[in-house]
Amino acid sequence: QVRLVESGGGLVQPGGSLRLSCTASGFTFSSYPMRWYRQAPGKERELVARISSSSDTTTYADSVKGRFTISRDNAKNTVYLQMNNLKPEDTAVYYCNAPSRNLWGQGTQVTVAS
Q: For the segment 36-82, what is each residue's pLDDT rounded down to a tens digit?
């Protein structure tokens, strides 16, 4: 079955950290670039970070640059999003995406609040 499954979301205080994971199955994960998006209530889905298939290129939205890190482990078919110094405005549902396959995960909720 071709799918992406996210995990690692939750409730965290401002300034805290979370690591999201997205595990792929049913396709050759190592051949595809991957992306993380987020969508806050009432807002459009926003591209947060992307990584090339071999991890040699990463890019970030200005809003998360210096705080978030995208990485991947092709042996584990998993892409990660390490989120540090979280802010209330980072609250959203986070989705991983394989753009070349038009494939999305189900999303994981991240809530930053005290």
A: 999 999 999 999 999 999 999 999 999 999 999 999 999 999 999 99
Q: Are 105 and 21 in contact (CB under 8 A)?
A: no
Give the integer Cα–Cα distance in Å for 64 and 31: 26
Residue keyed to tokens 């992406």? 4
Q: Where are the alpha helices (DSSP H) in the chain?
A: none
> Which candidate, 87, 53, 85, 91, places its Cα nearest to that of 69?
85
